[in-house]
Amino acid sequence: MIGRLVVIGLGLIGGSFAKGVRESGVCREVVGVDLDPQSRQLAVELGVVDRCEEDLALACQGADVIQLAVPILAMEKLLALLARMDLGQAVLTDVGSAKGNVVRAAQEAFAGMPARFVPGHPIAGSEQSGVEASNAQLFRRHKVILTPLEQTDPDALDLVDRLWRELGADVEHMQVERHDEVLAATSHLPHLLAFGLVDSLAKRSENLDIFRYAAGGFRDFTRIAGSDPVMWHDIFLANREAVLRTLDTFRNDLDALRDAVDAGDGHQLLGVFTRARVAREHFGKILARRAYVDAMNSNDLIFLANPGGRLSGRIRVPGDKSISHRSIMLGSLAEGTTEVEGFLEGEDALATLQAFRDMGVVIEGPHHGRVTIHGVGLHGLKPAPGPIYLGNSGTSMRLLSGLLAAQSFDSTLTGDLSLSKRPMNRVANPLREMGAVIETAAEGRPPMVIRGGHKLKGLAYTLPMASAQVKSCLLLAGLYADGKTTVTEPAPTRDHTERMLRGFGYSVNVDGATASVESGGKLKATHIEVPADISSAAFFLVAASIAEGSELVLEHVGINPTRTGVIDILRLMGADIRLENQREVGGEPVADLHVRAAKLKGIEIPEELVPLAIDEFPVLFVAAACAEGRTVLRGAEELRVKESDRIQVMADGLLTLGVKCEPTPDGIIIDGGQIGGGEVHGHGDHRIAMAFSVASLRANAPIRIHDCANVATSFPNFLALCAQVGIRVAQEAQS
Ligand code: S3P
């Protein structure tokens, strides 16, 4: 609660601030000051302020907070006047769109920056202006940037911060210089361009025609040229240096575009346009708070799964994640244009796609699963402009690390909370043996900093664990290493990299458990058809098996023998799964999977099937919970280092649902029985969230699953397909 707030300058921003604070009830009295008598009168009539004063000194007497909301170029004069008054303990703050000049003016006027002056800038406004447009809600969910200095009094800062939050604003603190740079680029430059474009067109003799035929693009682009010219003239004068810097950078980029048009360089144009388009979409998500960056940390997306149900129908689950990743990687490194169909538009594969865009590859799409990659050849990648963010995707990070270790430039790979906990030494160590220079955080965790410019040499490596990611990473590094790179695996793992390299015309030698490549070859662009992902199909294989009376067909599913462990395990448990219409598409076998409900029984899972079903265990545990008798899994310690510790997390959830089970260091023992309802956690792991959704089919009460946002990493339309076939799971309405 404060006593008196004085707002100097009753325009849209000052008026809205005054009105908002007044209505919030945190201030006993709001006093307005304005040079214009009509504004003063209106401010009182409209309830913007309690009263107005013409005289500045009189108004400021006894003020607790003084908000300076005059045009930015008037700030200097106002500060000089205030400096001559006795302001007591009043806190000063302002709303100027540039901060450097306000701070300089204050320093001059007060002979040093007053500790109780908190510079600020609300990023809000409208085309309307004047006190009559005052709106107490104007700042709700808008950013307000405060730019305190070293000497700023923390109590004063806290008070101003709290006032803005009272109005519903998101307050951030930033350095003065950074504020001015950021705003020059994101606000001032676009306004300059809009004003400039409209003026440039309007000056031409044919302007009537131009405006008559102006399409939506012109209207959209130039909307902000309707803003207040005087205010904007002030801003450009006030933020001169930062605006000049950003304008010069833009001028260079514009020249490059001009050159591309001049030279008929469609590749360059497509590159700029596709990158811009995704960047725009990404910003849109960030602004709508939907970006995957924060999805896992702050949004608890809850799935509510209601008990019972019977599945029927024919569906096609989305494209294979492993193959989608590899299609982007190899397509980018190929010579020529690769067309991909059936690409998984999930966040993991999109992270890989974005990484290659960041490294200068022109990629069109994805659009309905179609992606066109304009390959740059094995030596055509360019350094990304900053760290490459890979979200939740371990596959992206591990495979990319091999590729990037051989480039001439440095790269940094980062990821979300879950990925940042995952072990990377399994790739970093053998890569180092090949001559790579890689830094990681403690215990080999991300971020990974990969130094470029180091020649790799071939390596004969025996994998300590059955991991297709490590194998693929080393084979990709091997494309660049001197001599031969040979990887031997302790048990068969998915071989999509080997198959796809061959599909791109690159020779890979496979001899039993050993795969090898030699450098010096080329990848030739090709056409890739991505089959539906058996790892996604697995949820429905289990669902239709456990829900009495179900019959379901899953179309066009990849049945690469290194991936079909889930079918083998379910069949051993008594499942009724038939493979129909078997065929080969682009080097990968596919089939339609026909599944009918069956009585399942517990089994000892053969250890050799573990790597062939490594991603399917969460839902296989659900099958085990529905089976008669005991299921025992051993030799699956790798499950502890997936997107979550899948042994522990599944055991916790199953126990909550009343299922008898016991985690062991390398597996789990599950006794089948009745599944109950309850609250379980997805732990940001897509497959955990989906597995518990499936469990509801045999539960006797609803299951609420927390932390499900990452389902979008591999299976963006999971809920829609569940609804289509009869699984009663939906996103719980957010309050
Ligand atoms: C993958 C390999 C597996 C799997 C992951 C995808 C791949 O990981 O769990 O989802 O595309 O190579 P590991 O190689 O670590 O077992």
Distinct small molecules bound, one entry per kind: shikimate-3-phosphate
DSSP helical segment count: 25
Number of strands: 32
Radius of gyration: 31 Å
The CATH architecture classification of the largest domain is: Alpha-beta prism
Apparent shape: globular
Whole-number tally of structural domains:
4
* Mean pLDDT figure: 94
Helix residue percentage: 25-40%
Uncertain residue segments: 289-298
Based on helices, strands and strand pairing, what is the structural class? alpha/beta
Beta-strand content estimate: 15-25%
Q: Provide the CATH superfamily of the largest domain.
A: Enolpyruvate transferase domain
Order of strands in the sheet with most strands: 3-2-1-4-5-6
Could you say what the CATH topology of the largest domain is called?
UDP-n-acetylglucosamine1-carboxyvinyl-transferase, Chain
Largest β sheet strand count, sense and barrel closure = 6 strands, parallel
The first-to-last residue Cα distance is 29 Å
CATH class of the largest domain: Alpha Beta
